[in-house]
Design brief:
alpha+beta, four-stranded antiparallel β-sheet, 4 strands
């Protein structure tokens, strides 16, 4: 079978072919733009995921250290609680009237209570004071003027509390007798 193609028909086919190629280019361009956008979004999402994972790792490490510190603090509190209970039982079991305790003061603030002055002196070594440190009498100077100072206290049953073992002599105020 023979088909005769005329020039207008041929021109029409060429025109349709050009339009189809242009449409193909437009569609391919749109597809490439869409693909590029999806790739950029994929990279952005991947970057956010990697940063989130790194942040999660850092937070996990911080949380692990915090939990370890918390466990150590709880252990220390438990040991202190046990020591306080032991000391209370020991104090309740003994007669404390007239008994002298030594309070270690750090710049005038109570730091620790000891059964004897020797125990207090020995413990100051843990705070930077050597065992052979010469402890001088403080006289009437305020306790806040000294880095470490030991003060003896005596249990006073009348007041149900402790008082200083060595009370300074009262001075008359403004010439009063």
């Amino acid at each position: 079978m023979i088909r005769i193609v005329t020039t207008p028909c041929l021109e029409s086919l060429e025109y349709a072919s050009r339009r189809a190629r242009e449409h193909l280019r437009e569609v391919a361009g749109s597809a490439n733009e869409a693909f590029g956008e999806h790739v950029r979004e994929l990279y952005a999402v991947t970057d956010r995921a990697e940063r989130a994972e790194a942040t999660t790792d850092e937070v996990g490490a911080i949380l692990k250290r915090a939990l370890q510190e918390l466990a150590a603090a709880q252990q220390e509190l438990l040991l202190r609680d046990i020591e306080i209970r032991r000391l209370r039982e020991e104090l309740e079991g003994e007669r404390v009237a007239g008994q002298t305790l030594t309070v270690l003061l750090h710049y005038g603030e109570p730091h620790t209570i000891y059964r004897s002055r020797e125990d207090a002196y020995a413990d100051t070594a843990t705070h930077g004071r050597t065992l052979d440190h010469v402890w001088r009498p403080c006289g009437e100077c305020p306790a806040s003027e000294f880095e470490w100072r030991c003060e003896p206290f005596i249990y006073d049953a009348g007041s149900n509390g402790f008082r200083r073992a060595f009370m300074p002599a009262p001075e008359p105020v403004g010439g009063a007798a």
